[in-house]
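Reminder to self: tokens first, then the designed residues, so the page reads top to bottom the way the pipeline ran.
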């Protein structure tokens, strides 16, 4: 099998799969960096400037969030409008694309408007995130509107794999949303500083919101029947925010003396 055959049968598939594999390489190196102790300098780690270099100005947190998430909302919608009917109108693809757009409608519009306070985001972090969501929005949208075709669409919709993926995705959505709600309401109006979150999956892990989001995209990849772009996104999510959950857990242990008594893990209940 040569490289062209490995990447796919059509030009669109070869481009999408090729970009996905390149993203996997970058994700792996980012994971190694995060595991070595580096932290992405936003939120509570906003002062952790990498290499001691100031990489530009800071942007209002809400505005930065809307800008950096927007491509993953709008690019798939545009691709659906212009995509071939024989692919985009398959029920499987419409359900999966709807799940993806639903997530990013929340992340782009609803979630940032609910942020209370929040620290400004370094411009380069916003720029990197914008580049990622642009590429990811394209490969997921292209896959589901021009590539991901089934010979037997109706049977796959009824398959166990599809519905297990759907169930894991929506369970992740529920955990993620509930955890975000808990985090938003930790402080009363006018209060400052950090508090320990309680409730929901926070009884078991320090990074409950991160666990929920990872579950979303693992479920999405399962429902996509192991499509390369979907697997790439699931790995990227786990390898980027998984270490952040570990960093949060260590931060709680250092900041709150009795935190260890809660018996929480960092990300996976009873395991990690």
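Designed residues (272 positions):
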């Amino acid at each position: 099998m040569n490289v062209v055959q490995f990447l796919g049968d059509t030009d669109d598939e070869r481009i999408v799969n090729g970009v996905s594999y390149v993203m996997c390489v970058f994700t792996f190196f980012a994971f190694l960096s995060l595991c070595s102790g580096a932290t992405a300098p936003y939120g509570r780690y906003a002062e952790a400037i990498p290499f001691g270099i100031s990489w530009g100005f800071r942007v209002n947190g809400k505005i930065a969030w809307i800008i950096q998430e927007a491509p993953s909302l709008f690019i798939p919608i545009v691709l659906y409008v212009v995509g071939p009917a024989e692919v985009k109108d398959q029920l499987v693809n419409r359900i999966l694309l709807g799940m993806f757009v639903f997530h990013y409608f929340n992340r782009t519009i609803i979630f940032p408007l609910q942020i209370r306070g929040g620290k400004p985001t370094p411009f380069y972090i916003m720029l990197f995130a914008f580049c990622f969501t642009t590429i990811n929005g394209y490969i997921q949208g292209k896959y589901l509107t021009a590539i991901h075709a089934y010979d037997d669409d109706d049977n796959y919709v009824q398959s166990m794999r599809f519905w297990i993926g759907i169930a894991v995705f929506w369970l992740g959505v529920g955990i993620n949303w509930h955890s975000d709600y808990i985090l938003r309401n930790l402080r009363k109006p006018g209060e400052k500083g950090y508090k320990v979150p309680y409730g929901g999956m926070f009884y078991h892990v320090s990074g409950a919101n991160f666990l929920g989001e990872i579950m979303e995209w693992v479920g999405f990849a399962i429902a996509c029947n192991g499509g390369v772009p979907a697997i790439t996104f699931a790995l990227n999510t786990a390898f980027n925010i998984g270490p952040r959950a570990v960093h949060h857990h260590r931060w709680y242990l250092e900041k709150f003396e009795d935190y260890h008594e809660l018996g929480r893990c960092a990300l996976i209940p009873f395991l990690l």
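Residues 228-255 form the longest helix (28 residues).
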